[in-house]
């Protein structure tokens, strides 16, 4: 493998107790747009080093939990400014290691900073103790830091889904050990290092490595909370591993989000058609909350498909993430490419029609990378794999429905319930939305286009446990502590 022309290989190390800690071995991270090129190296952290990181966090927590909320916020705001100052460098690295087009990488930084700033603005109020005086005396409800947080982030939005954990955990007075995904470890580690530079040693630690490190993070008794974003199957192992020590958990897991287009939807609305296309193929379809299956009322189905293809062919341009024309880059890794390819081939074998979408800007570039041309899948059955499984890639099935009740049933029979969207006349769409089993439902938009960090985000059923974002996303890193001062100290029914 070779280093990308004009770019130096980035090297990150584990960060333990404020020090970069070398490991005996390193792994190379390739460029998904050209897998022969090395973007950088990250360490294979050992189990023993993971233990050191947890111990450092536990020791730092003893002091950090006592710091005033104003100091915590001040430190986080300084970190935000450092991230903003380094945005170009971070975006460049993220695009190289992940495959995101530059606009998409900038978008991830935008969402990350928006959340961090919201958390800073709301932390004091969210964590303020509540004092209630009542007929029975006085009660103080405080939100106390929970301890050492093990944060495990995924590869699709590595920075946003790391900072969604780091910011509230630290603002609430906890210490944290972050483990980025080996499929996108570099930019997330760099951002964590920037944040760590504004905090006392040990408050933020970063480890890498394989399954043994993950097991240590989920079983070590000094870890009191796990914050994980990733696949549902992995989460099942985490839950089992953590059961012996009964850890608090926030789990944001898989989604097979449905978009429902009612009879009242205007198929001639070009901006709306562009929004659904973006909702299907942003980040090459590798977003947990992207619209992964589309249900369209049969009365508008044929015209919808026609207009959808037109909109997709206008917006989708597959190419080098650094080409300003590119809107869709490569899939992040070969394993995911093979999985998505398998779903599309399965649909073909079952008789579905697969329609390629968009324009390939450079065929040679396309052939050398982990690229997949986005596809529309028609004529599939509601129980086909491509409909019931989370594709996490650039393909989407569109299916007709005959009445609203059928669409609601098709939506709710999924094991997932992360987000959903309903498109059409607003009042009618809201009425449908109220019947959907989902953590978030958007009206006439979908995916990150409808995300609002001021409100809680999480899923129903096997899409997760708990909520992130909003005030709830700060308080989830605390324990509620009730202090009662009763007026009546002796209960009347207890004998002398």
UniProtKB/TrEMBL annotation:
It comes from the Bacteria. SUPFAM superfamilies: ALDH-like. The active site is at residue 252. Residues 26-481 form the Aldehyde dehydrogenase domain. Transmembrane segments: none annotated. Keywords: Oxidoreductase. Belongs to the aldehyde dehydrogenase family. This is Aldehyde dehydrogenase family protein.
């Amino acid at each position: 493998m070779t280093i990308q022309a004009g770019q130096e290989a980035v090297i990150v190390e584990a960060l333990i107790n404020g020090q970069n800690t070398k490991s005996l071995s390193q792994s190379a991270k390739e460029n998904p747009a050209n897998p022969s090129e090395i973007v950088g190296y990250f360490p294979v952290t050992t189990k023993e080093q993971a233990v050191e990181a947890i111990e450092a966090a536990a020791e730092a927590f003893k002091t950090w939990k006592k710091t005033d909320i104003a100091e915590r916020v001040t430190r986080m705001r300084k970190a935000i400014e450092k991230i903003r100052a380094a945005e170009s460098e971070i975006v460049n690295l993220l695009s190289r290691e992940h495959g995101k087009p530059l606009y998409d990488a900038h978008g991830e930084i935008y969402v990350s900073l928006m959340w961090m700033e919201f958390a800073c603005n709301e932390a004091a109020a969210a964590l303020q103790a509540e004092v209630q005086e009542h007929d029975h005396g006085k009660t103080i409800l405080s939100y106390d830091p929970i301890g050492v947080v093990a944060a495990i982030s995924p590869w699709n939005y590595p920075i946003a889904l790391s900072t969604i954990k780091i910011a509230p955990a630290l603002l609430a007075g906890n210490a944290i050990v972050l483990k980025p995904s080996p499929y996108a470890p570099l930019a997330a580690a760099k951002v964590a290092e920037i944040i760590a530079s504004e905090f006392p040693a040990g408050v933020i630690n970063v480890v890498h490595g394989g399954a043994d490190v993950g097991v240590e993070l989920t079983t070590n008794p000094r870890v009191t909370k796990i914050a994980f974003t990733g696949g549902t199957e992995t989460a099942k192992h985490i839950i089992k591993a953590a059961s012996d020590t009964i850890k608090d958990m926030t789990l944001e897991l898989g989604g097979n989000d449905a978009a429902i287009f009612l009879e009242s939807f205007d198929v001639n609305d070009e901006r709306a058609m562009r929004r659904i296309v973006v909702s299907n193929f942003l980040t090459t379809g590798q977003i947990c909350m992207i619209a992964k299956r589309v249900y369209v009322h049969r009365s508008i189905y044929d015209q919808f498909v026609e207009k959808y293809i037109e909109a997709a062919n206008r917006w989708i341009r597959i190419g080098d993430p650094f080409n300003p024309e590119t809107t869709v880059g490569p899939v992040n890794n070969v394993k995911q490419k093979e999985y998505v390819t398998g779903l599309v081939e399965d649909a073909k074998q079952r008789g579905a029609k697969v329609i390629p979408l968009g324009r390939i800007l450079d065929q040679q570039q396309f052939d050398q990378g982990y690229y997949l041309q986005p596809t529309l899948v028609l004529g599939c059955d509601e129980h086909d794999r491509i409909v019931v499984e989370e594709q996490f890639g650039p393909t989407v099935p569109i299916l007709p429905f005959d009445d609203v009740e059928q669409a609601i049933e098709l939506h709710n029979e999924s094991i997932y319930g992360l987000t959903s969207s309903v498109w059409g006349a607003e009042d009618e769409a809201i009425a449908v939305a109220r019947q959907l089993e989902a953590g978030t439902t958007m009206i006439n938009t979908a995916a990150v286009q409808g995300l609002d960090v001021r409100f809680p985000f999480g899923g129903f059923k096997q899409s997760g446990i708990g909520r992130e974002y909003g005030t709830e996303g700060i308080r989830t890193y605390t324990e509620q502590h009730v202090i009662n001062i009763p007026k009546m100290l002796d209960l009347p029914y207890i004998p002398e």
